[in-house]
């Protein structure tokens, strides 16, 4: 497409960004098309956004920084040669909902998917599972499985990642700022009368910024840790009355400013769909229809609550490049990274007409010629 790009990496990830940049050069991107500009974010952005040739922003990061950059662009609008295109992939407060119809193996699946979604990469993913709504008939079993799986998690250094077989499931969080932020949420939960830290809850920054994977149970589905993005290894569980499924989905929809990933009903459907007995057993057919209805209800009520809506799967795991990814509301402009449609945001289309006829008079209707 010919666009020239300034790539400003996060100061916390400059080296990995640099490696990717070198790979792109080695793969044949002409020098200068991408210009790698590490450095202090506010200073660089101020200069770039004040330039009349600034044409577009593709931002990945927190919601507040994105909003600030959008305001800065608005304040500079008279300076620009064209109206800048603005794309943002921002925060998330991703959720799992467990429906009352889960059986024992379904609850176990939900527990494993929650461990993975919440704690892989120390929960430092925009799509990390951060809040879970459990039908009350499943709560005891779900907690039991969750704690059982949690006990198997090892936390330590990241050695081994070079061969993609890490010795530990969790490493440290990325820096002191992240450590302090996550720690403050754990402390808050410890002091909160409606919250209980039921696993993890400890941290150590004596050598590296290590936080144990933490599970909070709350009686308040709108508590601080159920609504704010933490971006660390902390997940909060709350339960709902099994017969209040639809009310709960409305609560899920309205609780936060974000709308990135999930639904993750984790129903039976996933299991039954693969069974050849489905066509034969009326009990399974009835169950299938009932569960399917729950999915349709969820899909409708949560239409705008998740840009990536997963059924029977965890909130993480979008393979960007193979699967469009992105959310709306406070989670971004939902332009879907990894999709062809994102590229169109950075194209300024031109329509070309060439006229081969002379005109000799003027009259209406004028658009015939
Ligand atoms: N939606 C997505 O696809 C996606 C993917 C990954 C991360 N995220 C989000 O990113 C956040 C975590 O990443 P982070 O801690 O690097 O976010 P961040 O907002 O602190 O930083 C993101 C980028 O903004 C720059 N920046 C920070 N302050 C700035 C300022 N005042 N002016 C200009 N630029 C500034 C940083 O240097 C960095 O490059 C989370 O909110 C997470 O959900 C979103
Ligand atoms: N790969 C991420 C999505 C992209 C984040 O930047 C995930 O696991 O969901």
Automatic annotation (TrEMBL):
Catalyses which reaction(s): L-glutamate 5-semialdehyde + NAD(+) + H2O = L-glutamate + NADH + 2 H(+)
One annotated Gene Ontology cellular component of this protein: mitochondrial matrix
GO function term, MF aspect, one: L-glutamate gamma-semialdehyde dehydrogenase activity
Catalytic activity, EC: 1.2.1.88
Keywords: NAD, Oxidoreductase
Family matches, as InterPro entries: Ald_DH/histidinol_DH, Ald_DH_C, Ald_DH_CS_CYS, Ald_DH_N, Aldehyde_DH_dom, Proline_metab_enzyme
Highest taxon of source: Eukaryota
GO terms, biological process: L-proline catabolic process to L-glutamate
Coiled-coil region(s): none
Domain Aldehyde dehydrogenase: 1-261
Gene3D superfamilies for this protein: Aldehyde Dehydrogenase, Chain A, domain 1, Aldehyde Dehydrogenase, Chain A, domain 2
UniProt pathway: Amino-acid degradation; L-proline degradation into L-glutamate; L-glutamate from L-proline: step 2/2
Name of the protein in its database record: L-glutamate gamma-semialdehyde dehydrogenase
Organism: Jimgerdemannia flammicorona
């Amino acid at each position: 497409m010919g666009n020239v790009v300034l790539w400003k990496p996060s100061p916390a990830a400059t080296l990995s960004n640099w490696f990717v940049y070198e790979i792109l050069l080695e793969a044949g991107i002409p020098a200068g098309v991408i210009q790698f500009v590490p450095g202090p974010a506010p200073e660089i952005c101020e200069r770039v956004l004040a330039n009349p040739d600034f044409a577009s922003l593709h931002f990945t990061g927190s919601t507040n920084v994105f909003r600030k950059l959008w305001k800065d662009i608005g304040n500079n609008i008279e300076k620009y040669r064209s109206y800048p295109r603005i794309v943002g992939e921002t925060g998330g407060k991703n959720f799992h909902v467990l429906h009352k119809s889960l059986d024992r193996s379904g609850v176990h699946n939900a527990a494993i998917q929650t461990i993975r979604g919440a704690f892989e990469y120390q929960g430092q993913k925009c799509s990390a599972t951060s809040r879970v709504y459990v039908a009350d008939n499943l709560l005891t079993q779900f907690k039991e499985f969750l704690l059982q799986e949690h006990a198997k998690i090892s936390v330590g250094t990241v050695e081994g990642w070079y061969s993609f077989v890490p010795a530990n499931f969790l490493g440290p969080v990325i820096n002191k700022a992240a450590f302090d932020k996550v720690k403050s949420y754990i402390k808050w939960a410890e002091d909160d009368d409606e919250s209980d830290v039921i696993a993890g809850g400890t941290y150590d920054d004596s050598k590296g910024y290590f936080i144990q994977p933490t599970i909070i149970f709350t009686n308040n589905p709108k508590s601080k840790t159920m609504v704010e993005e933490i971006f660390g290894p902390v997940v909060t569980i709350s339960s709902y009355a099994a017969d209040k499924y639809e009310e709960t989905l409305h609560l899920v929809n309205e609780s936060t400013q974000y709308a990135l990933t999930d639904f993750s009903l984790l129903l039976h459907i996933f299991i039954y769909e693969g069974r050849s007995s489905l066509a034969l057993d009326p009990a399974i057919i009835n169950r299938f229809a009932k569960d399917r209805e729950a999915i349709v209800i969820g899909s409708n009520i949560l239409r705008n609550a998740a840009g990536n809506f997963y059924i029977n799967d965890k909130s993480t795991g979008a393979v960007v490049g193979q699967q469009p990814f992105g959310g709306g509301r406070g989670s971004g402009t939902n332009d879907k990274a990894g999709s062809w449609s994102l590229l169109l945001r950075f194209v300024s289309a031109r329509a070309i007409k060439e006229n081969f006829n002379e005109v000799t008079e003027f009259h209406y209707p004028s658009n015939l010629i």
